[in-house]
């Protein structure tokens, strides 16, 4: 926190004991929101490392004809955010499709040909997430798979270790949000998915974004809290 411009609201919330924060229902959520700038920096460092770089490059080595981004709940919204970016950079069709739609209508939803299926999943442990990968492996063997997840113990991270068509990009365990809402998991999975097509400047751009976010928390948390308390009907 920037001590020269302390946030009254954050100070009040953080002053509560762990037990008080849990009773009030914000302990995990607040921590996960505030950890985002640092976890972005850490994710950028991870993505710049040789292991992650190899996973990302191998995902595109077969020159996919399309990319399908899939997930459940908020995870598919991350795919929607990424689809346009990937399509513009790779010049191939990129589309976000909910895991449930693929599971119930795979023949109708999955494009023909050889593609890349990016499964985006915070826990990677929902039954439909693994079921979608299983179904596509069987029905479309030419497709490659890239799993982006925050949970080393989830099905998506552990089930396909001997399957060469599935590559797993595992993020820091801190991003495996415990609260009901997805905050640091959502933004860090976005960063990881975007790295599929980003240049060497990506790490510097991520660090810059993290610095801006930290200043926002440090200097404008009270204004954000005030805005959140206002009556509104749509975001």
From TrEMBL:
Q: Where is the signal peptide?
A: none
Entry's Gene Ontology molecular function annotations: carbohydrate derivative binding
* Any one of the GO BP annotations: carbohydrate derivative metabolic process
Q: Which residues form the SIS domain?
A: 56-207
- For this entry, the protein name equals SIS domain-containing protein
Originating species: marine sediment metagenome
Q: What is the lineage of its organism?
A: unclassified sequences, metagenomes, ecological metagenomes
């Amino acid at each position: 926190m920037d001590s020269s411009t302390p946030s009254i609201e954050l100070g009040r919330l953080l002053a509560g004991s762990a037990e008080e924060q849990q009773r009030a229902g914000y302990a995990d959520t607040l921590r996960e929101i505030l950890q985002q700038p640092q976890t972005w920096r850490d994710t950028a460092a991870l993505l710049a490392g040789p292991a992650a770089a190899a996973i990302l490059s191998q995902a595109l080595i077969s020159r996919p004809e399309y990319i399908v981004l899939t997930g459940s709940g908020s995870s598919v919204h991350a795919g929607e955010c990424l689809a346009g970016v990937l399509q513009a950079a790779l010049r191939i069709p990129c589309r976000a499709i909910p895991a449930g739609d693929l599971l119930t209508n795979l023949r109708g939803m999955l494009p023909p040909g050889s593609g890349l299926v990016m499964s985006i999943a915070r826990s990677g442990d929902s039954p439909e997430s693994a079921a979608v990968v299983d179904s596509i492996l069987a029905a479309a063997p030419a497709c490659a798979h890239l799993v982006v997840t925050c949970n080393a113990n989830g099905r998506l991270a552990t089930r396909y270790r001997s399957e060469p068509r599935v590559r797993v990009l595992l993020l820091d365990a801190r991003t495996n949000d415990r609260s009901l809402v997805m905050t640091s998991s959502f933004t860090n999975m976005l960063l990881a998915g975007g790295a599929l097509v980003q240049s060497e400047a990506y790490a510097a751009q991520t660090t810059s974004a993290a610095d801006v976010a930290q200043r926002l928390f440090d200097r404008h948390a009270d204004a954000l809290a005030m805005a959140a308390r206002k009556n509104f009907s749509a975001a």
